[in-house]
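Lecture 7 notes. Example A: sequence first, then its structure tokens.
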Amino acid sequence: MAFLSSTRFWRAGGQSVLSGGWRILLALLFCGGLNLAAQTVATKEYQVKAVFLFNFSQFVTWPTNVFPEAQTPLTIGVLGEDPFGAYLDETVRGEKANGRPLVIQRYRNIKEAKNCQILFVSHSEKKHVEQILAGLKDKNILTVSDMEDFAMKGGIIRFMAAQNKIHFAINLQAAKNANLVISSKLLRLAEIVESGKD
């Protein structure tokens, strides 16, 4: 966690020093001011996006039947080529979301990915994004990607880069269709978009 540990507000000695809403607000404020041009862009960009994925797990509520037991883990999946490397695993190691442990899974196809709660859809799946989203239509999965037209096609969260900073857009109707409740704290930081209007 070299990228964020230097800020000293994210982790200290391997322990979280902030919780809940403050963690995401500080992380997003920090990321909002991050000049990606000053970093090794590809690596640092996905380090920031890994932190966003972790924080999304704190500010989304899934239907209770998604988790059969109190300690059933919340799974963050990556579909297709993994742009995060080990950094996503490092970001969630030892962390919990609403008392649940977090685990990371990598998937080669959409059939494997139907039991996760957050799914990052990689650029390698761009030709199949419409089929992927159609295949998840009845699933309670928070779909996330940085593909340009992702939210327009029905994905829930799209990462965007503007002026060398990372922002995100949320398709609120897509979230409702997946029976997911997104915290107002997260919505206030997002651009709200509609299907067909990404």
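Example B, a different protein, same format:
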Amino acid sequence: MSQTYTSAVRACIKGADEKIVFDRFHIVQHVTDAVDKVRRGESQQLREEGDDRLVGSRYFWLYGRENVPDKPLVGFDVLRSANLKTARAWAIKEQLRDLWDQPTLEDGEAWWTGWFRWASHSRLEPVKKVARMIKAHLPNVMTYFTHRITSATNEAINGVIKTLIKRSYGFRSFPNFRTAVLFHCGKLDLYPATC
């Protein structure tokens, strides 16, 4: 969602504004960071009052609802149902994840309007800040409903390329770098042909 990325894409691709799709992983990551900021602030406030319910719970708030480990589920359920700012921020984050399950663009826009109202009226400043950031980039969030793609494949290929660069300690020339990328990312069939 950086300006550098969008400027580079606009410079290289005709009609880029209708083609850029901001990845759901990164959007939810921003909201997850906001949940963690709310948790840190609330935990400090509660500890000053002698309440350490949130101590040691950081990683549970970072999980998605389907990935919360079974072992501490009971304690986490109690925290989630408590009247905590962190629980409210986590619920807002989890609700956002449902945006990409909407069947049409119109349904997505209607769903977004409800979520944005909830997030922007939550009285949780980190969550409100992220909601405003997403709203500023909303057209390229909603292009998901037109293309139904994410940048996950590009991120995976980029990770492989970064690993190649790190393992090789750099390349002497661009042709060598290009050959290595094509070799490792090109899905080449290197097995001998059998009759």
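Note on Example B: The chain is about 65% helix and 0% strand. Residues 174 and 180 are 10 Å apart (CA to CA).
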